[in-house]
Design goal:
The protein has about 525 residues and is an alpha/beta fold. It has 21 helices and 20 strands. The longest helix is centred in the middle third of the chain and has 22 residues. Bound molecules: ligand C2E and calcium ion (CA) (2 copies). Ligand C2E binds next to strand 12, helix 13 and strand 16.
Length: about 525
Amino acid sequence: VVEYVNPSFTAITQYSTEEVQGHHLAELPALENLSELLFDSPSSLAMGNSWQGEFKSRRKNLEPYWGQLSISKVYGDNRELTHYIGIYEDVTQSKMAQQRIERLAYTDNLTNLGNRPAFIRKLDERFARDSENPLCLLLVDIDNFKRINDSLGHHTGDKLLVSLARRLRNSLSANGVLARFASNEFAVLLDETSLEDGQSVAQQLLRTLDKPMFVDNQLINVTASVGLSCAPLHGSDPTTLMKNAGLALHKAKANGKHQVQVFTEVLNAEASYKLFVENNLRRALTQNELEVFYQPKLCLRSGRLLGLEALLRWNHPERGMIRPDQFISVAEETGLIIPIGKWVVRQSCRMSQQLQQAGMGCLHVAINLSPKQFSDPDLVASIGTILKEEGLPAHLLELELTEGLLLEATEDTHRQLDELKALGLTLAMDDFGTGYSSLSYLKKFPIDIIKIDRSFINEIPDNQDDMEITSAVVAMAHNLKLKVVAEGIETPEQLAFLRRHRCDVGQGYLFDRPIPGRELEEKLKRYPRGPMA
Ligand code: C2E
Ligand code: CA
Ligand code: CA
């Protein structure tokens, strides 16, 4: 029964002393909930001498407020309980500020979706509640978003993201959790959803996003890639599930984007292999584990040896010889391709010189350049320096370029190619026929040679289309004054076909496999000599 309240009590609750004095605590709307909290629950006040805590109640005008209360028991002379004395404070402001901070911390302020921490909290809660029923986790990444942002400006890019978020939200059922993880990455949690159902939701999302968007008075087409993992099949804790969805997304991107990939164990193996390469490749360069093999290139008219293609190998102390397909992409990602590429240039120049000194004539040496190497501002100068230091005439060095490089060529790339050409180097287009493959396009660049891809040569004489393409490419290239190299010649029939169609240069297992440097002199002896210097 309330005996006394001070004026602050009235200020907080809007009830006057008269309105509360003499009333039982449980009857007082001013302290709604409190009585229950203190006496009905197994609270410390029943057990101990005091209680401290927060409670939510209403002022007289029904406005809700938060109170912070500490209450103690008061005993009389004979140790009998006579009173309770409570001190309390209106903490509504700080409580609301806290809630706002929480909301800010867990919301993406562009799209108003939950952010990564919010999503992870939901995922954690779900696993704590239920670890048996299936659930699907989708990571949705907008393809080439950086390009969209760069070309249309960040302002439009932001609006596009808001529209995308709305579209994603609308295409999900109400219990699907959607969050924005990073600039162009969204995450979806589908509770109680099997792998099959998750896949069909993912496909549906792709289709939804495929439809053009109208933003800032223009139609914008976007596509997305999705990585999917399903619990408990692909992981029974949030961390594993997230990691695996991430690997699946990475795979979807690497496979050409605009698709759904489901996690498989193979992706784990790939990821740990990649980690192995990352951790070991730097050492490979300094510990002399890298080696250059050389594959002969012959004049198809005369059968003379014209030159060699330098092909990189990694001789790992435990794993043995590793082919470049297994590590070049990691070298590109980590930037290690730049020092490695320079090393290959130097080795190859030395080898050409060494063979000449051994009386093998002037042999061209061709080097594969990764597009990534063109991001090195020092590329042209470093090649020039190496040629000078090794004393190799520039016309003996050939650079094999990928189509991707020309397709994505910036002004800068163009200039570098012109400069390389001006140094006197020969430029070749590698793997011709596998990509965009327009001869007229090639003419925009100072290219001298095209190499028809192995995949066309491979099926000669069984595949009529490949034969027609090959002979047409040779004829057209000759019209454009380009030389043609055929790679991957394995049979005498292939050789005969290529000679008949006047392909200039050939390379392949029929003549030789790539040869380790130290065996080269010996192995090359059986070829008719190249032209003397
Ligand atoms: P590429 O430039 O297309 O090289 C030709 C590949 O075909 C080489 O594989 C070669 O060993 C193989 N080959 C040659 N003749 C035949 C044949 O008759 N039949 C078959 N089946 N294959 C043949 P390799 O050495 O494994 O190299 C693979 C790729 O790695 C190369 O493809 C090239 O793109 C890249 N690469 C190699 N060395 C370097 C390098 O130093 N730097 C860079 N950036 N890339 C390199
Ligand atoms: Ca090549
Ligand atoms: Ca090739």
